[in-house]
Design brief:
By secondary structure, this protein is mainly alpha-helical. About 55% of the residues lie in helices and about 10% in strands. It contains 6 helices and 2 strands, in the order H-H-E-E-H-H-H-H. Strands 1-2 form a two-stranded antiparallel ribbon. Helix 1 crosses helix 3 and helix 2 crosses helix 3. The protein is globular. About 30% of the residues are buried.
Length: about 140
């Protein structure tokens, strides 16, 4: 994997300085509160990510060769997890998205041990949705 995007490096540094789970949980909540809001037209069934216990919406767009995602969830902790995933993936190309190891990223942040299996599965589902959006965009571009 190439070096981390600037926002991901900053996030990693902040989380690595956290004293323990309570401080990391607080950081997660703060990150989630900073998510780019979705408007009502984006909170559709088409943008819901299957595999999350709480409802989570994800929207992605290709900007040149790179991807930008935004989303939200009804669950505050899930919004935080989504936020730290987004800082890691935004700006990546489709091929980099395919190679990203989400478990490694959450491990670097010191969050892996505190993630319940259902939350870890939810974050994997979000990454799979990102990959699917990027793959379908490539397929559509090749058809045109």
């Amino acid at each position: 994997m190439s070096e981390l995007p600037a926002a991901a490096s900053e996030t990693l540094e902040i989380f690595q300085q956290a004293a323990g789970w309570e401080q990391r949980a607080r950081l997660l909540m703060q990150q989630g509160d900073r998510l780019e809001p979705l408007d009502d037209t984006e909170r559709t069934d088409d943008n819901l990510v299957a595999g999350c216990d709480s409802r989570l919406w994800l929207v992605g767009e290709r900007r040149g060769l790179h991807w930008h995602f935004h989303g939200t969830s009804e669950a505050r902790l899930l919004r935080g997890l989504l936020a730290v995933l987004l800082v890691r993936v935004n700006g990546l190309g489709a091929d980099e998205l395919q190679r990203l190891d989400v478990a490694d990223w959450f491990g670097q942040l010191g969050l892996a041990r505190q993630l319940s299996p259902s939350r870890a599965n939810g974050m994997n589902a979000v990454l799979q949705r990102m990959r699917a959006l990027a793959s379908s965009s490539l397929s559509n571009a090749n058809v045109q």
